[in-house]
Amino acid sequence: MVVSRARGQHAGLSRDAILEAAVRLVDRQGLAALSMRQLGAELGVEAMALYHHIPNKSALLDGMVERVVAEASPPDFDGSSWSEGLRDYARSLLRALEAHPDLVPLFMSRPAMTPRNLRAMEAMLGALCAAGFEPRRALDVVYSLTGFVLGHVAVQRQIEEAGPDGGADSAARLSGVPADVHPLLSRAARDDRPSGTASRFDFALDALLAGFDAARGV
Amino acid sequence: MVVSRARGQHAGLSRDAILEAAVRLVDRQGLAALSMRQLGAELGVEAMALYHHIPNKSALLDGMVERVVAEASPPDFDGSSWSEGLRDYARSLLRALEAHPDLVPLFMSRPAMTPRNLRAMEAMLGALCAAGFEPRRALDVVYSLTGFVLGHVAVQRQIEEAGPDGGADSAARLSGVPADVHPLLSRAARDDRPSGTASRFDFALDALLAGFDAARGV
DNA sequence: TTGACGAGTTTTACGGCGTAAACATAGCAT
DNA sequence: ATGCTATGTTTACGCCGTAAAACTCGTCAA
After folding, report:
1. Suppose A131 and one of A14, A82, B24, B28 were both cysteines; which one would form an S-S bond, judging by CB atoms 3.0 to 4.6 Å apart?
2. B8 touches strand D (CB under 7 A)
3. pTM listed for this prediction
4. pLDDT greater than 50 at residue B166
5. Residues A195, B136: C-beta atoms closer than 8 Å
């Protein structure tokens, strides 16, 4: 028994409310804390009640991915070049992923091919083809850009794992590498401190887009 | 009782043999099939026997990641430019990851900061600094390159999910998008067929490296 | 008014999971 | 011979996803 509600009383569940609660739960407690029972508790309901709105846990995870991806604003090429449009979209996707870091592992195995996303891809392909890319190359650009953003957040998550303070034995924290055996690594890690992730992302994103520009068939 | 071995008989387990069996099991049956009990069965042993060689399942997964990453050959800059060395390393890492596609999700959350890997990073930083990058920028390049490879395999895995044949309802397969609503997408997906992943990877990798080259402080 | 029905919820149950704790045996050091 | 340690098995616990069934409503036809 969860609260005072009797056996058949409606609890106002819906697919959307469930997905929202699930994302909230993971943001707060991490991916490992997401179980049907915990999620039910978050909503004041028994676990099995969720199955009337969502077929199984895998579909739940898919829905969460879709929900977070939808937070990114679609690319907009009005009054901007293809590269500016792509850059804005990449930044927007990055922000959406960074807002829910514990969900990132899901993105590696769950494509979010929503109608909305297909429209976004179509728009990017349009701008790219208009700029001189062959359709095949344009698709390469779009896929590569997505992968680039995904990879960046994954790596960044690993670097920041266990926070800047906690876990001195954390393998990913470079601060601990001995300067005598890895001088450049330790120096670069020290210099890296102030600017952090945003600067690296923009730097590499600009490089990638510039590279694409150079490869484009005029 | 697993076989005919009596209660205290040694079974020749070792951390390394366990990791190898685990990778083999996942390659054959997928990540979901990896449980301590199944892994024990693969080795002719009860699940709890593994805990004398590995502290817990999380450490097992870490070990598997390290093992697969170690399959990539370290960067070699002898007689080649920094960009050629980085390209070779990226390709080698890509091959290692593609050899164990079901392990890819693990790489998104588990850094593999082995001594071997730190040496590889130090070598890359050396080559980059010698080429005119500031240490901080050099680290950006190394991290971004790693993320790029990771992101590429993740996206590629999603595209190929459920194979080229099975799962016509698979959301990630672009072949099914209606040509009238997404003409460019459907055309690009058709053209994409022959060349596939390798061509896209090399195309985008070259773009990224060219972009880095242009950003380098002479 | 009533009675059947379907949607939404809880209850119960099952097999599998990671792993703590206790126990057993083999081989080695003394 | 004696005990110690390393390595295995057994048992047990609480959690997991979810199938099946029981319950309780609101709705709507007769």
Report:
1. A82
2. yes
3. 0.92
4. no
5. yes
